[in-house]
Amino acid sequence: MATEVRVPTLGESVTEATVATWFKKPGDAVAQDEMLCELETDKVTVEVPAPAAGTLSEIVAAEGETVGVDALLANITEGAAGEAPKAEAKPAAKEEAPATAPAGGGESVDVMVPTLGESVTEATVATWFKAVGDTVAADEMLCELETDKVSVEVPAPSAGTLTEILAPEGATVEASAKLAVISSGGAAAPAPAKAAEAAPAASTGKDVENAPSANKMMAEKGLTPSQVMGTGKDGRIMKEDVQKAASGAAPAPAATAPAPSAPRPPSSADDAAREERVKMTRLRQTIARRLKDSQNTAAMLTTYNEVDMTEVMALRSEYKDLFLKKHGVKLGFMSFFTKACVHALKEVPEVNAEIDGTDVVYKNFVHMGIAAGTPTGLVVPVIRDADAMSFADIEKAIAEKGARARDGKLSMAEMQGGTFTISNGGVYGSLMSSPILNPPQSGILGMHKIQDRPMAIGGQVVIRPMMYLALSYDHRIVDGKGAVTFLVRVKEALEDPRRLLMDL
Known about the structure:
It is a single chain. The protein has about 500 residues and is α+β, with helices and mostly antiparallel strands. It folds into 3 domains: about 1-95, CATH 2.40.50.100; about 100-200, CATH 2.40.50.100; about 300-500, Chloramphenicol Acetyltransferase, CATH 3.30.559. It has 12 helices and 27 strands. The chain has helices at about 85-95, 190-200, 210-220, 240-250, 250-255, 270-275, 280-295, 310-325, 335-345, 390-405, 480-495, 500; strands at about 1-5, 15-20, 30, 35-40, 45-50, 55-60, 65-70, 70-75, 110, 120-130, 135, 140-145, 150-155, 160-165, 170-175, 180-185, 300-310, 355, 360, 370, 370-375, 375-380, 380-385, 420-425, 445, 450-455, 460-475. The strands form 7 sheets. Strands 17, 20, 23, 24, 25, 26 and 27 form a 7-stranded mixed sheet that branches. Helix 3 (about 210-220) runs parallel beside helix 4, helix 9 crosses helix 10 and helix 9 packs across helix 11 (about 480-495).
């Protein structure tokens, strides 16, 4: 008996959706209410559960297709009959790998790519924490995947032995792809020997993973990890370590060189031997692509000003202890800048707008993006409705988002929908820079290092803590007058914070 899977009700005034991700493929067994796929509408993501248990026999609407309400998505064959083809297909697949066939009653469990997040369809396998033949516990972390923005940990779905890795490190996998196979029985003994035979260089006997290029070169040179001294983090073996070990292992040819004192011209081969080629992470690839797209698309221009931070620093110094005691969070500079930008955006709304084709979309709210540097690259978590938040709410949100960004725990939803961005290069010591727009936004404010400088005030030269400000903007939508006005309003609000209270 076949059961149809149809598009559910999408919400008021929503008539169509796009199939974003299928979490199952034809032939897979599904349980009732298990999530089959994810649909994207203009505003929300809709999950489609299985209406009945059985086998997914057919997918009618593939990923990327646009479907209407109640459209047919797939068919499920109910009952044991639907599982028969899958059971028959198993022996044929096992004929190719007889070493794992005599499992003695062991049951194989597939390790699949988990849900990656809204609009994310693929990921890169960053690190395997287990090798073929290793015993794993249920929910123990097996590997880590990298997407455009976040890292995803993959736990073991059951206890057993890791008998096969289908997606090695560096491989790109689609959502719901198979990563590995775990045997929950006790007869996977041949697997460790097979793994050691196939990749002797990958087993180091240490808790750290060597560079993939180093493992490859050790296999080529016939070296074992015990013969190589690792100079990387935590003793990690790098490619150059293998090269040093290989050259040291055969000193005789070098000793017979006819003219050791004669200078040898440098060659590209010598330089290549001291290089290490590392594939860019998906996050770095996305950053590179988006920044270049921003430069190619927007008519980007930057205007500069400087702000005297005396009043903000005095106010912060006077109230920081009371602020911490009452709100449980430190009073920093970012809340002042966020408030000042919100104040300026109300006066110059085109800086808080975006271009959509031939239309200009003005945002009557401020979703503030706060750029944050992480060990894996720059991310921009978004503080939603910052224009309706207090100083304490802003500081709490910045602290929480910053911690999640550093830990790689931000979701895709937390980095989408920003209308304006603040980037603080001053924390790294930058004195002046031109930030690049975060499309489709039309403005980004660059903060910089606070530095004491001599200033002429009231006919006298005095030392003041000064900061350069930079506003990069899309000149297609923001005129020079609007950009300069915005930056002046930010400067005025920071030099006299009382203006924020009076909305002046």
